[in-house]
Amino acid sequence: xxxxDAMKAYFEPKIGELVGDLLNFNFSxxxxxxxxxxxxxxxxxxxxxxxxxxxxYGFTIVITKTYSTYGDDLNLEAMNLAQAFMDWISSQNRxxxxxxxxxxxxxxxxxCLQNMPNLAGIYAERGLARYxxxxxxxYFEKETGA
Length: 146
Description:
This protein is of the alpha+beta class. It has one domain (3-142): STM4215-like (2-Layer Sandwich), CATH 3.30.2000. It is 27% helix and 43% strand.
């Protein structure tokens, strides 16, 4: 299983629980209740050691929800859903519940890189808004024998 497979498998159950839909990988459709996992970088070296390195896996979660230009609470509900997802990520980190990376990797932490979701844009014609959560996973990886 690759690191990408591990990340997708880790987040899919939570996405199903929150919006009842599948997680899109490196694709963000223009549809209500879509949640996407977008890779930013993988295996970025933070610090090198002899035969090992501390690395980062950066990713963005994109949540697409219906938005409103009226005085209702639809936009607030969408923001709260995205914030709840961020809170879940923080909770998983505190509990040290992480994706199952290869055996030569040890995950040190998973964190959100902001304190609230970004409203990344709206698609007025479809009445949709995108919320983005930028995150990273920091891990230690040993070289494997060739």
